[in-house]
Predict the 3D structure of the following.
Amino acid sequence: MRNIAMVDLKAQYEKIKPEIDAAIQQVIDTTAFINGPAVKEFQAALEKYLDVKHVIPCANGTDALQISMMALGLKPGDEVIAPSFTFIATAEVIALLGLTPVLVDVDPHTFNIDPVAIRKAITQKTKAIVPVHLFGQCADMDEIMQIAGEYNLFVIEDVAQAIGAEFHLSSGKTVKAGTIGHVGCTSFFPSKNLGCYGDGGAIFTNDDKIAAKLRSVVNHGMTVRYYHDDIGVNSRLDSIQAAILKIKLKYLDTYAEARRKAADAYDAAFSANPGLKVPSRFAKSTHVFHQYTLVTTNLDRGKLQEYLAAKNIPAMIYYPVPIHLQKAYLDPRYKPGDFPVTEALSKAVISLPMHTELDEEQIAFITSSVIEFTNQ
Ligand SMILES: *Cc1c(COP(=O)(O)O)cnc(C)c1O
């Protein structure tokens, strides 16, 4: 049996090696390292795939979020609503820009931001909501867009874990995650569902005016060379990464299918197990399984992780500490117990290996090992 990795980027690369190597070599041969044709080609291909008017590439997913908030004109004192159960980047950029992060709890089944809690958190100062499509499945964008419309708020979707997921709108239309809010932000970090071989990110929007502002902020606030209308940043996707992404984008749906197949096998093995709750599938969204995350009940999660580690099966805790209990984000507005769902999840979740190259033998070994532990 091949070694089991949390994410097996090497096995994935080996299957597309000639294509990738040629694309990288072509960028080197032309020396168009920054803003070369590969960047434009990938941008156009992603616009087509997502069916969105504008894709603005940038250096990483954290920058994508920061640039979005800058381009939307959010100012210190403005409140931005975000989930308490997410990767830190979401809250980090809010704090970094001097905006006020307003955290809200998540749904215990989907792990995504709870629209009822969003409503309760809105004040006169609220300017934006940042739903995170956690682990590969969309937050309830119908409800979120409804609330945003009522209170005239911006919606910035954090699609770093859910690129390619589809949301079924109440209008009957099915659209790609990240194209529903005013802006969508994604990351091409190597382990993401669409990952490059370094750092990368992108911002999506259907709004021409917002797109123009994003393009300015991403490039030193410059629309005409050496004339700076906005205070911006320098955040670029380089040509080598774009060339790699253009190839991997062709396989994104096939990759999602492989992840779903692994998730189905995990579900089948664990759904009747009283110690484990398999991830819920939200009827309004497809799931692209960035992570396969179990919620443990009445079993020692740490011991399970150790048991698996002894068999060379990696398992990870995403995320062990909620944002409001992180040292840098301690805030007199919040205390332990404020977000009971997030706090319970952070103590109970465990994510199993999930990637595009898991084979049946590996999955059988993982599932039987987990079951062995629960039967002890
Ligand atoms: C990975 C991730 C980011 C940040 O992306 P980087 O490219 O690492 O900066 C932001 N939000 C979420 C939910 C993520 O998973």
About this structure: Residues 83 and 104 are 5 Å apart (CA to CA). The chain has a mean pLDDT of 97. The first strand starts at residue 54 and ends at 58. Residues 60-62, 86-87, 89-90, 132, 158, 160-161, 187, 189, 199, 201 surround pyridoxal-5'-phosphate (CB under 6 Å).
